[in-house]
Amino acid sequence: MGWELWVVETLRRALAYGTPLLLGTLGEIYAERAGVLNLGVEGMMILGAFVGFLTAFVTGNPWLGFLMGAAAGGAASLIHAFLSITLGVIQVVSGLALTLFGLGLSGVLGQGWEGRPLKVSLTVLSVPYLKDIPIVGKIVFTEQNILVYVGIGFALLLWFLLFRTSWGITIRSVGENPATADALGIRVSLIRYLCVILGGILAGMGGAYLSIVYRPSWTQGMTSGMGWIVIALTIFSVWHPLAALGGSYIFGSLFYLSFRLQPWLAPELLTIMPYLFTILAPMLLSVHKKLRRRMGAPAALGIPYRREEE
Amino acid sequence: MRGISKQFPGGLCANDHIDLDIYPGHIHALLGENGAGKTTLMNILSGMYRADEGEFSVDGHAAQIRSPKEALAHGIVMVHQHFRLIPPHTVAENIVLGIGRWFFSPVKKIEKAIRDFSAQYNLPIHPSSRICDLSVGEQQRVEIIKALIRGARICILDEPTSVLTPQETKELFPILRKMKSEGKAVIFITHKLEEVLEVADHITVLRKGRVVDSMPSSSLEADREEAKKQLACMMVGKEVILKVRREQVIIGNEVIKVEQLRVMNDREIETVKGVSFSVRKGEIFGVIGVAGNGQRELVEALVGFRSFSGRIEKTSEKFGYIPENRLHMGTVPHMSIAENIILTCYRDFSGPLFLDVPLIEEHAHRLISSFRIVAPDTRVLAGQLSGGNIQRLILARELSQNPLFLIAEQPTHGLDVSSTEDVWKALLDLRRTAGILLITGDLEEVLSLSDRIAVMFQGVVVDVLDASSAQQRVEEIGLMMTGGLKKFDRGR
C-alpha cells in the first residue's frame, strides 16, 4: 500500500513542479517553431520571478504579480527579438546575452528584498467531484494551485492554435521555410516577433510562479537553471505542446524525486536526468528516417531571414 | 507585355524591349538558351522583379505588376523550377498557406477544394501526404494545384521538365492540355525543342534578351526535324562572329581520359550516361550544353565530389579548377585576397609551423597586378569583390600553380565584357602549357576558345566536332544542344 501512495504523491507534486517548466516550454516552442532560437529563457524567467514577487508583495495581489511578471518577460524578450529578427544577429549570442542581463538585473534590483516572505499566494484547492475519480482524481484534482490548471489550459489552447488553425500553419511555415512563406505574402518578421514575445510572456509567468507559489519569496538566482531545462524540454517534446505537457511533468517528478530520494540517492543524479533524456530522445527519434524529417527541429531555426533581393 | 526591359547591375541587359502576348486557352512556349532572358522576363511578369521599362495590360486594361501579390490579383502565378514547398508539411498545409479565408481547421476545409481540382485537372494527389514523401512529379502537381486553387488564369512553368523523369514528363503534358481546355493560359519556359513541338500552340524565341520571333506553332515546318532546325537557328543564330584568335599550339600528351562515365545526381537519377572523352596538353576541349544536362555532375565526378562508375585517368593528381560557384566554392568570402590566393597551395608559403606572411603578401601583390585584380590592397575580403575580380582572383590562384590540367566551369557566366576578355586571355595563355576542359553554355565562348567541341544534351555527348568545322555548323550545334539532333550529320 505504501508505494502506491508514494507514486500518487510523486505525480501530484510533479504537476506542481512541472508547471513553470510547462509555461516556459510552451513559450519557447512557439518562438522556435517560428524559427527563432531564444536562449534567454533563464533571464526572462528570473525577471518575471522578481517583478512578479515585487508586485505581489507591494499590492498584495498575486494575480497582479503574475500579470506583471509576464509583462516583464515579454519586455525582456523584445530585446532578443529586435537583435535577432530586425538586426539579424547570431541568435545564440543574443539569447545568452539576455540571460546574463536578466540574471544580473534581477540580482541588482532584488537587493534588499531577499528573504522577505510573501504573505499572499495562490489558493490551493481541490476540485469537488473530480477529486474523487480514482487515481487520476488524487493526482490532478486534489490540492493543486490554480496555475496548474492554467498551465494545462494553455497547453491545450496552444496546441490547438499551432495545429488546427491557419495561424498555426503560418507560424510553422515561417520556421521551416521563411522564403516560401514570404513569397506567399506572409510577414515573416511580424510573426517571429509575436512568437518571441509570447515566449517571453510565458517564461515570465513561469518565473513568477516560482516566486509567488512555489517558494513565496525572492532569492537571487532562484530559478537555478530552470530556464536551461526549458530549452532542453523544448527539444525533448519535439516542439509539440502536448508532448511538452507530458515532458514537463516527467521532469517535474524528477525534480521532486531528487529531494525525496535524498536519503538513498545523490540528488545530483536525478538532476542530470532531464538533460540525459534530452540527449536520448532525439537520438532514438533519428533512427527512424521518416520520423526524423517529420519531427525534427524547424528547418530554419536559428537562421536569420533576409529576403534575397534581385 | 510591351517594351519590357531590364538591366542588372554590372551592365547585363537581361531583357531588351520585349513584347509578348498571351491568350487564354493557349500553351505558349518561351524558348531560348541560358541567359536569353526567359526567366527574368517571367519573373517580371509574376511580380518577383520590376522592369526598368515597359508596361502590362491585362484583359485590355493597363495594369501594374509590382509584386507577386499584384500578379496574383491578375491571376498570374509562377511555378518555379525549384519548388517552394515545405517538406515536412502535408500537401493541404502547403496549399492552404497564406490563404486567409479560414481560421479554424483550414486543412480540413481546403481538402475538398483540393480533391475537386485534382479530379477536374486529372492531377491525382492526396491532401494528407507529406511533401517529403512525394516524388518530384507529384510535388510539381502540388505546385500546380496550389496555383490553380488561388485562381491562376495564367500559369507560368519554369523549365518544368528539367526535374522530371521521362515518364513524369509524359504525364505532365496531358495536364497542360487539360489546363488549356479549361481556359487557362500556360506559359512554359524551356530549352528543349522536342517538348515545344509536342505541346506548344505558340512559340516565342528569345536570344540575348531580345525577341527573335514569335509565331504560332502551326506556322512552322510540318516536318518535325525541319521545324526543330528552324527553331534552333532562331535560338543560337546562324553564325557567331568571333573576336578572338587562337594561335597554333603543338598538341602534347593526354592529361585526362574519361571512359564510359556514369554519374547519378542527388535524386539517384543518372544524369551522366556513359560519357567518354580525353583532353590533351595544348588544347581546350569545350563542352557546350544548356545548364542542367549533366555538366555539373560530370565536373563533380572529375573533381572528386561525387561517386561515379566508369574510368577517369588523370596524368597527375594536381589540377586546377575554376568552379561555377565563384563566391562560395571558388573562394572563402570572409577571407582576404591574400588568404584566398594561397588557399590551395598554402604549404608552399609556410614553414613547419607558421605561414610566411611576407612571402604571401609579395605573391599576392604580384598576382594582383599581373591579373589586373581591382582592389586597394590584399586585405580586402573576397566577398567584397565584384564578380569579375573574384574570377580574376581564382584564375590567379589556379594558373600560378602551373597545372597540367584545368577545369573551367562556366567561367564567364554573369561577367562584364572586360572581365570576360581577361578570362579568355588567361585560358588561351594557359593552353600553351596545359590541357583545359571548358564547360560552358555560351556558344560564342566555346567557339572562340575551343580546339574541339563536345555537345552535351541529357547526359550524353551528342557529338564531338573540330573547331574548324564547328564554325560553319552553328545551327547543328544549336540543334544538338536542344535535343533536335541525335548526332552531327556529316552528310549534309
DSSP helix fraction of chain A: over 70%
Report the span from N to C terminus of chain A: 72 Å
How is the largest sheet of chain B built, in terms of strand order?
6-7-8-3-9-10
What is the mean predicted local confidence, pLDDT of chain A? 88
- Rg of Cα set of chain B: 25 Å
- The helix content of chain B, as a percent range, equals 25-40%
From the alpha carbons, calculate the radius of gyration of chain A and give it in angstroms: 19 Å
Number of discrete helical segments of chain B: 17
Strand composition percent of chain B: 15-25%
Oligomeric category: heterodimer
What is the structural class of chain A? mainly alpha
Q: What is the N-to-C succession of helices and strands of chain A?
A: HHHHEHEHHHHHHHH
Largest interface: A-B, 23 and 25 residues
The first-to-last residue Cα distance of chain B is 40 Å
Describe this structure in words.
The complex is a heterodimer of chains A (310) and B (492). With 310 residues, chain A is mainly α. In chain A, 72% of the residues lie in helices and 1% in strands. Chain A has a two-stranded antiparallel ribbon with strand order 1-2. Chain A is globular and about 60 Å long. The model of chain A has no long low-confidence stretch (mean pLDDT 88). By secondary structure, chain B is an alpha/beta fold. Chain B has 17 helices and 19 strands. Chain B has helices at 38-45, 68-73, 91-96, 106-120, 136-149, 166-181, 193-199, 224-236, 295-303, 326-330, 337-341, 357-370, 387-399, 417-431, 443-449, 467-470, 474-481; strands at residues 2-8, 12-18, 27-31, 53-58, 61-63, 76-79, 154-158, 185-190, 202-207, 210-216, 254-264, 270-280, 284-288, 308-314, 320-322, 405-409, 435-440, 452-457, 460-466. In chain B, the strands form 4 sheets. Chain B has a 6-stranded mixed beta sheet with strand order 6-7-8-3-9-10, with helices on both faces. In chain B, strands 15-16-17-13-18-19 form a 6-stranded mixed beta sheet, sandwiched between helices. Chain B has a 4-stranded antiparallel beta sheet with strand order 2-1-4-5, covered by helices on one side. The mean pLDDT of chain B is 87. The A-B interface holds A 164-167, 169-170, 172-173, 176-177, 179-181, 183-186, 290, 293-294, 296, 299, 310 and B 8, 49, 68-69, 84-89, 93, 96-100, 102-107, 130, 132-133.
